[in-house]
Amino acid sequence: MANDYPIGIFDSGVGGLTVAKELIRQLPAEDIVYFGDTARVPYGIKSKETVIRFSIENILFLLKQSVKLICVACNTVSSVALPVIKNHFRAPIVGVLTPAVREAVYATQNKRIGVIGTPSTIKSHSYENLIKEFDPEIKVFSAATPLFVPLVEEGWINTPVTKDVARKYLEPLIKKNVDTLILGCTHYPLLKSVLQEVLGRKVTLIDSAKQVGMEVKKMLVSENLLSSTKKGKARFYVSDNPEWFTNLAERFLGYPVKDVSKAELS
Ligand code: DGL
């Protein structure tokens, strides 16, 4: 039965576990297959063509695992590749942009939203365009914040260096008086406390993982694909260096992962 097939989720590496964690929490009966493209991470500085090619290969890998739905956890892929490739696959595909934008548009009081993400995400203007579709009156201020990814992977969360970097990156957005900030990258939810400290308590941070989980659930219900099993299992695949992924995974998930396998992409 297709209902008992797993949900596939992929990211350029380990960061997508922030979304996987939420899927596992909200949909405990579902099996999950996670793929992290650790051989080719980071995607956030790559060209559109390259991100599209990698994304197609990742989706094909997940489809070989007989997944019933694909969740694109990576903001760069959701921004750059998803609009182009989405309709080329029969499986339902959920990205991270729409859930985040919907929440941000709802949250803003002064109609001034900030977006931070990788250079490729920001260059694509995907968040900005989508926000304008929801409400053309909203002003969007974006900033590429690439140093946050290695800082999180290094485990430097509440350190003076990270705070300095956050101040430098966020200063222009603070000057623009944004009251809502979209965390447009898989890694940034781990920096929430630092970002909130730098921005002040009045700015609402939008971490889309929870909304993405709800979107996936809604899609499974509407496609009549909810699992009938009682307790789901999660399997993890990477394209390189399972040890590296295993070591970092706990920071993102909050608990250790076992059995990370190396996947062969064809
Ligand atoms: N997963 C990426 C994103 O959310 C960040 C890491 C990368 O650059 O690949 O945009």
Model description:
The protein has 12 helices and 10 strands. With 266 residues, it is of the alpha/beta class. Strands 4-3-1-2-9-10 form a 6-stranded parallel β-sheet, sandwiched between helices. Helix 1 (17-26) packs across helix 11 and helix 5 packs across helix 7 (126-134). The longest helix is centred in the N-terminal third of the chain and has 17 residues, at 48-64. The model has no long low-confidence stretch (mean pLDDT 96). Bound molecules: D-glutamic acid. D-glutamic acid binds next to helix 3.
Summarize the helices and strands and which ones pair or pack.
Elements: E1 7-11, H1 17-26, E2 32-36, H2 48-64, E3 69-72, H3 75-80, H4 82-85, E4 93-94, H5 97-107, E5 112-117, H6 119-124, H7 126-134, E6 139-144, H8 148-153, H9 160-175, E7 180-184, H10 192-199, E8 204-206, H11 209-222, E9 234-238, H12 242-253, E10 260-262
Parallel strand pairs: 1-2, 1-3, 2-9, 3-4, 5-6, 5-7, 7-8, 9-10
Précis, in short:
This protein has 266 residues and is an alpha/beta fold. It is 45% helix and 17% strand.
Run of helices and strands: EHEHEHHEHEHHEHHEHEHEHE
Strand order of the largest sheet: 4-3-1-2-9-10
Residues in helix, %: 40-55%
Largest sheet: 6 strands, parallel
Query: Span between N and C termini?
Result: 27 Å
Envelope shape: globular
- Total helix count? 12
Mean pLDDT: 96
Q: Structural class given helices, strands, pairing? A: alpha/beta
Q: Which hetero ligands occur in this complex?
A: D-glutamic acid
Radius of gyration: 18 Å
Q: Could you name the ranges where pLDDT drops below 50 across 5 or more consecutive residues? A: none
The quaternary organization reads as single chain
Strand content: 15-25%
| Total strand segments | 10
